[in-house]
Amino acid sequence: RVTVDTAATGPAISDDMYGVFFEDINRAADGGLYAELVQNRSFEYDRADNASYTPLTGWAPRSGDPQVVDDAGRLNERNRRYLKLPLPGGLINAGYNSGIHVEKGKRYDFSVWARTDQATTPLTVSVTDPAGAALADPLRLTVRGATWTRYTGTVTAKTTSITGRLLVAGGGAGTLALDMVSLFPRDTYKNRPNGMRRDLAEKIAALNPGFVRFPGGCIVNTGSHYGYDAPNYERRRSYQWKDTIGPVETRATNANFWGYNQSYGIGYYEYFQFAEDIGAMALPVVPALVTGCGQNQATDDPALLARHIQDTLDLIEFANGPADSTWGTVRARMGHPAPFGLTHLAVGNEENLPDQFFARFTQFRDAIEAKYPDITVISNSGPDDTGATFDRLWQLNEDAGVAMVDEHYYNSPTWFLQNNERYDSYDRQGPKVFLGEYASQDNRFYNALSEAAYMTGLERNADVVRLASYAPLLSNEDYVQWRPDMIWFNNRASWGSASYETQRLFMNNVGDHVVPSTATGTPSQEDLPITGAVGLSTWGTAASYDDVRVTSADGTQLFADDFSAGDANWTNIAGRGTWAVTGGAYTQSDTAAENTMVMAGDPAWQNYDLNVKATKQS
Ligand code: AHR
């Protein structure tokens, strides 16, 4: 029975409450949301990114002996490697997943930076299938002289293919130098050049998100304790927003925490533009110089800290400064003279060293608030939903009057069902909660349902929980580092998970305020799935279960009993003999997967298809 108090008005719910968290994990950016079709377009893939990489990953020589070099003839200081192609010669790029996806009748913009040691060199660009059959009429360009120059052209696909290849071939004699070999669909989201893949961007836009948290996650703070001048590998692991802006050929590619190379083709400008395009608030996360995500290191270099703090102030100017300010000029030059209107910014992500993190966070916050008092500076509570780090960080945040605290947790669906009341007891006067990352641990309908149930608890506490985003947002099905994920894709298609539909439902139906209600009734039965042949039972997370009913697949009840944490066995149930617990007694734990016990009983029950239902008591 649900009783609704129509006379009362509960907390207001912000239109921005539900948003998305985009991190370049599972190849969410290159080969994903970033529409570029060529993999490793600037030959910067490196063993430091991934042990399997070479500078020619993604490429195969077609003829001649193409060599990637790093010498004084480079395109620029931050795009150091380029290709030397002895002529005649050519090489082929295989794109991502099964290849380059082209659609009949659609246009694709090719571009390349090139120079030649000849007066002129003919360059032929072909989009083919793996056997070499043309998918479009070839593009013929002429490279002139020894100065790096950008050459462009457009091809129109004559045939649809999901296994396309890009062949770049030079004729004549001498050596051709190539860099930034790009094939970009003309058809991007909002037709932006250097833009987003339309189907993925549209799926995100269809959520109607209130905000976009970016760029991470673990990729943000990883390596941030290394200095700017640290040697190659360490330096490359640190994500710094200034590396990600300006013309794409000047953006230094970087090793990604998740084990691949990131081109920064989607950089801070593109994040802000995308957030604006989908009507969402941009919410960047900057590193706090204390690494989380298993690294747990803090820097004690005051100069490095000062530089990161200054970078953060510069970031705010890049987003909000007038078009004639130092960083506002850069934004204007990139195509957006008007400010982006940044209002929130998070410092740090899941730090496991509470005191070290908070000491640095405080310095960031002081500097930001001194110059930009209207910006909300968000702190966090570490990687877990509970525990010593969580408690310490909350204490520090509360004591310092922090405006908003980022919480993260990935738990079982049962946890989400059992913790609906989590925020009912939070201090109404304390810091607000930004639930920046959460998901129940699978991509099944039951997960989506448990998340929906949980979100009613978030919404009921909208005066405390101000922002919430499921995580991660995207996953390329062939490059998975983390699951579950909200939207899945490959090189040609994308599809939302059941959790996507939950998020879409909530984000498109945000109420104005909570209508207080109470519910009474009998506890519902919980499915306790049995897996394995001999009654290997994976239990839920309650301390005790009453009226446990075991039925055969056709619904026939076989036995019923009560069961509590610590019970060692069931005996003599329904005349079926002793059921000994051979895999350890049932102990209450947070995840159903940990509550595994093995019941060995009447051999006649071996391989029996069992269903277990119980009424959860606590
Ligand atoms: O969402 C995936 C990862 O989970 C994020 O990078 C990190 O913040 C968290 O541990």
TrEMBL record:
Protein name according to UniProt: non-reducing end alpha-L-arabinofuranosidase
UniProt keyword Cytoplasm, yes or no: no
Catalytic reaction(s) noted: Hydrolysis of terminal non-reducing alpha-L-arabinofuranoside residues in alpha-L-arabinosides
GO molecular function, one term: alpha-L-arabinofuranosidase activity
Similarity comment: Belongs to the glycosyl hydrolase 51 family.
Biological process, per Gene Ontology: L-arabinose metabolic process
Assigned keywords, A-Z: Hydrolase, Signal
